[in-house]
Design a protein that fits this description.
alpha+beta; 212 residues; nine-stranded antiparallel β-sheet; 33% helix
Amino acid sequence: MLLSLGQGVKGLTEGLSEETAGPDPLRLFGEWFEQAKASGIALPEAMTLATASADGAPSARLVLLKGFDERGFVFFTNYNSRKSAELDANPRAALVCHWTVLQRQVRIEGTTARTSSDESDTYFHTRLRGSQIGAWASSQSATLTSVDELQQRVREHEKQFADQPIPLPPFWGGFRIIPQRIEFWQGRTNRLHDRLCYECVNNAWLCRRLYP
């Protein structure tokens, strides 16, 4: 698409300066996220979530960003999943948003906390009914003996909740990553990329430039 190509070329030629980035990384993230959505790329909200077990063993997977503000970045999941178990044992995480066509990525590191039940319930009821049933039917990350077993669980919950609203599962909800470090990476020619790193110190964001 013309917008995606234009933004990509602009980033390569003009780069990312401290002046255009500004002092607020959340405002800059919002601008970049809107440009990623406007570019037409598939799933601009996809982000890599990296967690670690209590003994430091890492794991990573893609999740979907469902909201962000000054409190942090939110995704939703099954609280019995591997990622949830690791976040409960070691409540630190890292996120990476990568928008290839724009030659941009954002790295976010911070602490984590579960969202409130009200926040989780509000988001849950924006999901398609089939996705709500799927949340009830899936014992996420547990061993599944056959696809038939999963389909049977789906049918059971469809029958259970027939002709009525589907409640929020007690084992399902959100996590918020509370950022302590946010790095913006803008691709440049000759791999002389721009990297601006914001760190939260005494409740204020400090920005410094990093070597590519």
